[in-house]
Amino acid sequence: AKAMEDKLKKMTEAAAEGGEEKSLGKKIFDAYTKTANVATTLFPVWTVLCSGIALKNPAAFDWFSTEYFTAALAALMLSMGITLTPQDFVDVASKPVPVIMQFLLCYVMMPLLALGLGKGFAVDPALLAGMVLVGSINGGQASNLCTYIAKGNVALSVLMTTATTVGAIFMTPLLCKSLLGAVVPVDAAGIAKSTIEVVLAPIALGMTLNKFFPKAVKAILPFAPVVGVVSTCLLVASAVAQVAEPILNAGMSLQIPILLLHLIGGLVGYGLPRVTGFSETSSRTMAIETSMKSSAFGFLLAKLHFGDYAARIPSAVSVVWMALSGSILAVIWRYIPVPEGDE
Question: Whole-angstrom Cα distance, residue 226 to residue 43?
Answer without folding.
Answer: 10
